[in-house]
Amino acid sequence: MAFKIIASQCTACGACEFECPTAAIKFKNDTYIIDAKTCTECDGHFDTQQCAAVCPVPKTCVKA
């Protein structure tokens, strides 16, 4: 399973992009997106999903 970013809630701050250990987050069409093929939910890297942990808007980075 992968995480996704709720585009309508994303402020495009960029915090998530730099925290992703697999570089699955990219800026596209004025918002950030998560590549489901690359996202590992930080498994093997961290105990919590880094995109959700650093996002300033609660429940913007969620399980797909």
From TrEMBL:
Entries under InterPro entries matching the protein: 4Fe4S_Fe-S-bd (IPR017896), 4Fe4S_Fe_S_CS (IPR017900)
Obligatory cofactor(s): [4Fe-4S] cluster
GO molecular function, one term: metal ion binding
Iron-sulfur as UniProt keyword: yes
Top-level division of the source organism's lineage: Bacteria
Domain 4Fe-4S ferredoxin-type residue range list: 1-30
UniProt keyword annotations, A-Z: 4Fe-4S, Electron transport, Iron, Iron-sulfur, Metal-binding, Transport
Keyword Cell inner membrane: no
Pfam families: Fer4
Name the record gives this protein: 4Fe-4S binding protein
Organism in which the protein naturally occurs: Roseiarcus fermentans
